[in-house]
């Protein structure tokens, strides 16, 4: 057997594997002996079928099997031994005459293979126009007000107010007295807003914590359906109830002072409202930047694909796309849409591989995937500060989640895009224009229409 490799064009080679009968005949004979042992032919005992009949029945398939194994193994070995960095996998060379496998003993198998081009990514000559999204003062004020709403000052007053939350003990009552075997519920929380009846509200407002009195919830809440939602489906909805107010909880809009600033930004020393608004604005800008990064990433890809000059064996790659799709993609579709749908993706994949090869820190490792999963399941937990037994429990949860290989690959792709985005932002020339969130959305819409 002899293997030769020749250049055919830009990053395209031909590999010819010349096989002689002696290279595969022993395996053919071995396969035929196995078939003879298993053959079930009328008139012959098992294992006693004449070899001539076996060769006539199975000789062609045994030869094909031996050739396929020999050529496949030899081709793979040639690729490994010569450290060929290929795009895809070799295909049959259509310029060579197909071999007559049935009648020829000495056979040439010819393949085409695409070599990955040498790519030197030059970031200095790149330029991407993009936007630095800065929220308006009105938007900042709106977020500040929302932070006050979501982070109220909570107190436990001695008397019930108009907008308090209440913790109640509830006992079903009849004729103004608790029923011995009636419905009971402790730790029931309601908000004063749920009490729609004016007279019922007057029963609550001003009452001291610990007060005990009779209430008809159907009247207080306005409907029996509302009672069922509060007390549960197993509670009588048309009964009176004796209640005890165990606690009143009052949420009030906090003052914009240092205590509030520390609550929102515990790691910052913020003394006044202007500094607080600047901190809020900076966080909003980070959020806008993170949301816009996927759009910037696509623009950086377009720029790199346009800037990186290298040749591809397009005719081969069109064939490879079709064959690799296993019938899902037709040759005419690839020919029609090659530049718009395939070439750009192939070029970026090669550029990306080249960048990662030169910067192995961009490779996503298992630890990064695990940490991502833990952040999704347990947001806000500082893994590094946990006790060993808690870390072990979290590791088990993450390991169980990561058994899904498809899920793991999706996470790796997501993390790889984020890491590559940050890497390219540090390498490429980006011309930022300041804009508001609303104007940014308008500009995106205009770009989509173009």
Q: Can you offer a commentary on this structure?
A:
With 450 residues, the chain is α+β, with helices and mostly antiparallel strands. Helix content is 50%, strand content 19%. It has 14 helices and twelve strands. The protein has helices at residues 21-38, 51-81, 137-150, 198-204, 217-221, 224-231, 258-264, 273-307, 314-324, 331-358, 366-377, 388-401, 405-427, 437-449; strands spanning 2-9, 12-19, 86-92, 107-115, 128-133, 153-155, 165-174, 177-178, 184-191, 212-216, 240-252, 430-435. Strands 6, 7, 8, 9, 10 and 11 form a six-stranded antiparallel beta sheet that branches. Strands 1-2-4-3 form a four-stranded antiparallel beta sheet, with helices on both faces. Strand 1 and strand 2 (12-19) form a beta hairpin. Helix 8 (273-307) crosses helix 13, helix 9 (314-324) crosses helix 10 (331-358) and helix 11 (366-377) packs across helix 12 (388-401).
């Amino acid at each position: 057997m002899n293997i030769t490799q020749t250049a055919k064009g830009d990053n395209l080679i031909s590999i010819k594997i010349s096989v002689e009968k002696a290279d595969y005949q022993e395996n053919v004979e071995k396969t035929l002996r196995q078939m003879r042992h298993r053959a079930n032919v009328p008139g012959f005992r098992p294992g006693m079928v004449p070899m001539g009949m076996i060769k006539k029945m199975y000789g062609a398939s045994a030869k094909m099997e031996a050739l396929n194994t020999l050529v496949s193994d030899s081709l793979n070995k040639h690729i490994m031994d010569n450290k060929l960095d290929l795009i895809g996998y070799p295909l049959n060379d259509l310029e060579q005459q197909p071999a007559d496998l049935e009648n020829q003993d000495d056979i040439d198998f010819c393949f085409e293979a695409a070599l990955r081009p040498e790519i030197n990514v030059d970031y200095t000559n790149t330029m991407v126009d993009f936007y630095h999204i800065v929220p308006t003062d009105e938007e900042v004020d709106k977020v500040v007000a929302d932070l006050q709403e979501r982070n109220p000052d909570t107190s436990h007053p001695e008397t019930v107010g108009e907008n308090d939350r209440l913790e109640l003990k509830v006992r079903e009552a009849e004729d103004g007295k608790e029923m011995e075997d009636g419905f009971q519920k402790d730790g029931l929380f309601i908000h004063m807003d749920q009490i729609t009846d004016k007279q019922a509200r007057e029963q609550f407002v001003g009452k001291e914590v610990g007060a005990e009195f009779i209430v008809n919830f159907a009247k207080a809440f306005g409907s029996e359906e509302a009672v069922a939602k509060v007390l549960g489906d197993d509670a009588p909805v048309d009964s009176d109830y004796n209640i005890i107010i165990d606690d009143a909880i009052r949420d009030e809009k906090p003052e914009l002072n240092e205590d509030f600033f520390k609550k929102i930004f515990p790691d910052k020393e913020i003394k006044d409202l202007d500094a607080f608004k600047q901190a809020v604005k900076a966080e909003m800008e980070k959020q806008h930047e993170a949301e816009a990064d996927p759009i910037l990433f696509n623009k950086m890809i377009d720029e790199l694909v346009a800037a990186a000059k290298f040749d591809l064996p397009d005719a081969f790659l069109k064939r490879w796309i079709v064959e690799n799709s296993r019938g899902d993609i037709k040759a005419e579709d690839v020919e029609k849409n090659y530049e718009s749908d395939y070439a750009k993706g192939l070029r970026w994949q090669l550029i990306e591989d080249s960048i990662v090869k030169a910067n192995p820190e961009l490779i996503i490792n298992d630890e990064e995937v695990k940490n991502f999963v833990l952040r999704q399941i347990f947001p806000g937990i500082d893994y590094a500060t946990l006790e060993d037994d808690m870390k072990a429990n979290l590791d088990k949860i993450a390991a169980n989640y990561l058994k899904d290989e498809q899920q793991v690959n999706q996470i790796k792709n997501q993390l790889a895009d984020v890491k590559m985005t940050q890497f390219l932002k540090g390498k490429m020339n980006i011309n930022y224009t300041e804009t508001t969130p609303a104007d940014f959305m308008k500009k995106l819409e205009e770009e989509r229409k173009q």
